[in-house]
Automatic annotation (TrEMBL):
This is Malate dehydrogenase. Signal peptide: none annotated. Belongs to the LDH/MDH superfamily. MDH type 1 family. InterPro entries: Lactate/malate_DH_C, Lactate/malate_DH_N, Malate_DH_AS, Malate_DH_type1. It catalyses: (S)-malate + NAD(+) = oxaloacetate + NADH + H(+). GO terms for molecular function: L-malate dehydrogenase (NAD+) activity. It comes from Zizania palustris. CDD domains: MDH_glyoxysomal_mitochondrial. Residues 69-211 form the Lactate/malate dehydrogenase N-terminal domain.
Length: 390
């Protein structure tokens, strides 16, 4: 049984009591306690559906049944804590390593009392990074400062670039084969920074580097379901481009189920999805940015990645990845990707075909902004001397 958080989730069907692996998958969320035996987990069946796109004839689930090690860097923060809890609940995870520069001991002790199988170990201070990262299958980086009202994500660059640099260099040294999920903003620049640093260290595998943009999809699904009065679990809206303002491009014309929108609805929904982060920043009034919805979204993306590693042949999520398959002039772009045993197996570039006039115009408009953020990240990393960790 697997913890499933995403609309495009597909996993072992005994959660739902379905007898056939070919049966339509269910989106479930887990409630309450887990006794240590995964069969005792409670699942809420929200709906039964097949994710986009349809499974190919050869798709199948070959479960390694978990045993994965996930490391979370920045685990004591606003995102890190609820994310750690959600990952502690995943039966796919046997080891959960938590790293932060503060407060990690308390978080580790607290989480360690949950009777789910993953063993939680806390690490703090640079000298502990090696132990935290050794053998990690997935490394998640939510470390960094969040926005306050009036700031853009790019305003975080000067602080977060250095944090991401330090942590990615440690991943290169101690967990070079892991999948790396970057949450720290500005994602449009921090992912290019990571790519350059991994190249400098000689361990770059573009299939294994991800900017986490799942929250944009989660928001788009929620807002579209509300607007069109659709069952939440039915809705799947691809969001492409990047993760800041106008670079966030929801493709409403490609939403599932097929839905028609007026021009006003497209404009209103697109603007809401693009500004949703700011909506939360303003509502928190200086208390930070999205943490709970972000933890939910990151858990969904981690779970999808683990299912890919585990051999599930039908896992798709949107993510900001190093690939020019979708837009040749942009070396990083958020697309729907197929996740497999080695990370990205395929970038679904076809999704950018047949866009509406509105979407095509928005895509053209976002390119200079996204390119500038990519170039800024690359330039930063190229000016940095690489540091080997002990
Ligand atoms: N990708 C997205 O969709 C998305 C969504 C929400 C927030 N974010 C970003 O995530 C980041 C974190 O947000 P938050 O609300 O959790 O912030 P937070 O301040 O609550 O937590 C950040 C944590 O990082 C830790 N940290 C700082 N420097 C570190 C280092 N060198 N090594 C390890 N840990 C370190 C801090 O101690 C803190 O615990 C921000 O940059 C925010 O903009 C991204
Ligand atoms: O808006 C932010 O600064 C945080 C995050 O990128 C979000 O989209 O919520």
């Amino acid at each position: 049984m697997q913890l499933r958080l995403g609309a495009s989730s597909l996993a072992a069907d005994h959660v739902s009591g379905l007898s056939s692996r070919r049966a339509a998958p269910l989106m479930c969320c887990f409630l309450g306690h887990a006794s240590g035996s995964s069969s005792q987990w409670q699942a809420v069946k929200l709906r039964s559906r097949r994710p986009w796109p349809r499974a190919g004839a050869g798709s199948r689930i070959v479960a390694r049944a978990g045993g994965y090690k996930v490391a979370i860097l920045g685990a004591a923060g606003g995102i890190g804590q609820p994310l750690s809890l959600l990952i502690k609940m995943s039966p796919l995870v046997s080891a959960l390593h938590l790293y932060d520069i503060v407060d990690v001991e308390g978080v580790t002790a607290d989480l360690g009392h949950c009777n789910t199988p993953a063993k939680v170990v806390g690490f703090t201070g640079q000298e502990d990074l090696a132990g935290c990262l050794a053998g990690a299958d997935v490394v998640v980086i939510p470390a960094g400062v969040p926005r306050k009202p009036g700031m853009t994500r790019d305003d975080l660059f000067s602080i977060n670039a250095g944090i991401v640099k330090e942590l990615v260099e440690a991943v290169a040294d101690h967990a070079p084969g892991s999948l790396i999920h970057i949450i720290s903003n500005p994602v449009n620049s921090t992912v290019p920074i990571a790519a350059e640093l991994l190249k400098q260290k000689g361990v770059y595998d573009p299939r294994k580097l991800f900017g986490v943009t799942t929250l944009d999809v989660v928001r788009a699904n929620t807002f579209v379901a509300e607007k069109k009065n659709l069952p939440l679990a039915d809705v799947d809206v691809p969001v492409v481009g990047g993760h800041a303002g106008a670079t966030i491009l929801p493709l409403l014309s490609k939403a599932r189920p097929k839905t028609s929108f007026t021009d006003e609805e497209v404009e209103e929904l697109t603007a809401r999805i693009q500004n949703a982060g700011t909506e939360v920043v303003e509502a928190k009034a200086g208390g930070g940015s999205a943490t709970l919805s972000m933890a939910y979204a990151a858990a969904r993306f981690i779970e999808a990645s683990l299912r890919g590693l585990d051999g599930d042949g039908d896992v798709y999520e949107c993510s900001y990845v190093p690939s020019q398959a979708a837009v040749p002039e942009l070396p990083f772009f958020a697309s729907r990707v197929k996740l497999g045993r080695d990370g990205v197996e395929e970038v679904v570039a076809a999704e950018l075909r047949g866009l509406t006039h509105f979407e095509a115009r928005a895509l053209e408009a976002l390119k200079p902004q996204l390119k500038a953020s990519i170039d800024k990240g690359v330039a930063y990393a190229q000016q940095q001397p690489a540091v080997a960790m002990a």
